[in-house]
Amino acid sequence: MKSTFLVNIKERLLIVGSFSLIISILLNLFTGAFPILDFLKGLFTGISLVTNLGYLFKLKLERNS
């Protein structure tokens, strides 16, 4: 039996990754070139990348077992 905690983590990874990507895109579209905003764009892009890859990794593990 699968733990519901692990299922929730997988779903949370996808949600956090999606929202981080949306925030990064919106910052890129509507803000200027200020150093702190450039840092936030990179931060949210990195969070999106890591969480979406984590989701894909967990999905692959789930399908293989």
Query: How many domains comprise the coordinates?
Result: 1
> Uncertain segments of ≥5 residues (pLDDT<50)?
none
What is the count of helical runs? 2
Q: Provide the residue-averaged pLDDT.
A: 88
Number of strands: 0
Largest sheet: none
Q: Give the end-to-end Cα distance, rounded to a whole number of Å.
A: 12 Å
Can you give the helix content as a percent range?
over 70%
Q: Determine Rg (CA atoms, Å).
A: 15 Å
Structure commentary:
By secondary structure, the chain is mostly helical. It has one domain. It is 88% helix and 0% strand. It has two helices and no strands. The chain has helices at 4-30, 35-64. α1 (4-30) runs antiparallel to α2 (35-64). The longest helix is centred in the C-terminal third of the chain and has 30 residues, at 35-64. The chain is elongated, with a radius of gyration of 15 Å. The termini are close together. The mean pLDDT is 88.
Characteristic key phrases:
0% strand; mainly alpha; single chain; 2 helices
SSE layout and pairing:
Elements lengths: L3 H27 L4 H30 L1
Structure, briefly:
The protein is mainly α.
